[in-house]
């Protein structure tokens, strides 16, 4: 902040923001900064207009990072899944739990995690709507398994166990009616890794910072 230039007004008079221009290379940083500013408006209401305006230019106010660790428990061969849910850049919900049903592949484990996270996402959407802050764009769900992402959009499903078919149709229905968008994120940028596996110190600190958790 040493080079920051203070101003007396949070917004330039007569300024009009629009969607022209290139997206920022680090969207997560944008979400984090303005997510934090939303908290500031609780005690500084005079900046509410400016913060609300810039928050409208987030690609999606709601993002969910999800991951699954296939056969993470060597004793019973069950997988671990977890997710991190952000609203307006704020980390508001998370989960880390062992799956109750055996997954025969990493794709099945990831897709079950996707169905579980979608259930939580629907509940959060309903809560946000009750608070009179409806979403202006579909939430984005980010997973690092290309096969799971493909299944969420593919109208053809091969012969699979009943519990997988239920998860498949549940998620596909939400994708088809544009209640959510499933996208791929690289494993390096998968924040939910911290909920599904042991990671080294450097990566742990990096993921923790993205959750905006401070020691």
Automatic annotation (TrEMBL):
CDD domains: RNase_HI_RT_Ty1. InterPro entries: DNA/RNA_pol_sf. SUPFAM superfamilies: DNA/RNA polymerases (SSF56672). It comes from the Eukaryota. This is Uncharacterized mitochondrial protein AtMg00810-like. It comes from Nicotiana tabacum.
């Amino acid at each position: 902040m040493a080079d920051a230039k203070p101003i007396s007004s949070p917004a330039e008079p007569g300024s009009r923001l629009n969607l022209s221009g290139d997206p920022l290379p680090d969207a997560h940083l944008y979400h984090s900064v303005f997510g934090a500013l939303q908290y500031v408006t609780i005690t500084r209401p005079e900046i509410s207009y400016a913060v609300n305006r810039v928050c409208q230019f987030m690609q999606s106010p709601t993002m969910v990072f999800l991951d699954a660790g296939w056969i993470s428990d060597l004793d019973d061969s069950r997988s671990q899944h977890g997710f991190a849910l952000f609203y307006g850049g704020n980390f508001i919900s998370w989960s880390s739990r062992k799956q109750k049903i055996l997954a025969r592949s990493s794709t099945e484990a990831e897709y079950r995690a996707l169905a579980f996270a979608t259930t939580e996402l629907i509940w959060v959407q309903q809560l946000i709507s009750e608070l009179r802050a409806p979403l202006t764009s579909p939430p984005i769900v980010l997973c690092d398994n290309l096969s799971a992402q493909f299944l969420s959009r593919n109208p053809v499903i091969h012969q699979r166990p009943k519990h997988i078919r239920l998860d498949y149709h549940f998620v596909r229905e939400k994708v088809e009616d544009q209640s959510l968008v499933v996208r791929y994120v690289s494993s390096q940028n998968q924040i939910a890794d911290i909920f599904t596996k042991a990671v080294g110190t450097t990566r742990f600190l990096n993921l923790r910072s993205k959750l905006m958790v401070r020691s």
